[in-house]
Design goal:
alpha/beta, 5 strands, globular
């Protein structure tokens, strides 16, 4: 049984739980109460006063950038607002000066938003190699080492921090050490872990992390 106080807080934070058993499939989650309240507040201000509150919203955006920087273990200047995780991964994929023969190493069985941006690079002569994660993270790192040795033209290693179909947490810091040593970009889909597990953008040698709110 869920304690009454915990259940009350849960329903306040996630109103969807009042009427539904929502089985989040790691794709689209219901909006939490505080976020919905913040959206309504800003929308109400804009409806009542137009752009008069623009300075207030700018300050809020700046404060939020600092909050997200702390959440990432980074600084506000490294934070960019994007529509969603998939857009961020697509921006990263399209923002690299690719050359024919370049290679992307992509974790196998990734969420589609972290697959199609890389496969789409085939028209530019970029090859996508799938990284078998094995049964544990020691195996995953050993297999990554082999792939990096076999593909010296690798430019990017792309992966999800938390695997959407298993909940497995990949060792981002160890991946980042390997990519940094070889001057390869480490690009992480952080959506399932950010805000739940501590993240350290700088110490883990991550070059890009994309995540939704």
């Amino acid at each position: 049984m869920i304690p009454a106080a915990w259940q009350q807080n849960r329903q306040q934070l996630f109103p969807v739980t009042r009427d539904l058993v929502y089985l989040d499939h790691a794709g689209v989650a219901p909006l939490c109460g505080p976020a919905a309240d913040a959206i309504r507040q800003v929308a109400g201000q804009f409806s009542a006063a137009g752009a008069v509150g623009y300075d207030r919203w700018t300050r809020l955006e700046t404060e939020t950038r600092f909050d997200v920087g702390r959440l990432l273990g980074s600084t506000p200047r490294h934070v960019a607002w994007i529509p969603n995780t998939g857009s961020g991964l697509s921006f990263a994929a399209q923002g690299i000066d690719w050359q024919p023969g370049d290679v992307v190493i992509l974790a196998r069985d990734e969420f589609p938003a972290n697959v199609y941006p890389w496969l789409a690079l085939a028209s530019r002569g970029v090859k996508t190699i799938f990284w078998d994660l094995g049964t544990d993270n020691n195996q995953a790192l050993a297999k990554l080492d082999v792939l990096l040795d076999e593909h010296p033209t690798c430019r990017v290693v792309a992966y999800s921090w938390v695997q959407y179909h298993t909940g497995r947490v990949l060792p981002v810091a160890q991946v980042g050490q390997r990519t940094r040593d070889r001057d390869i970009l480490s690009i992480c889909d952080g959506i399932q872990g950010l805000g739940v597990i501590p993240f350290d953008f700088n110490a883990w040698n991550v070059d890009v992390v994309a995540a939704d709110g």
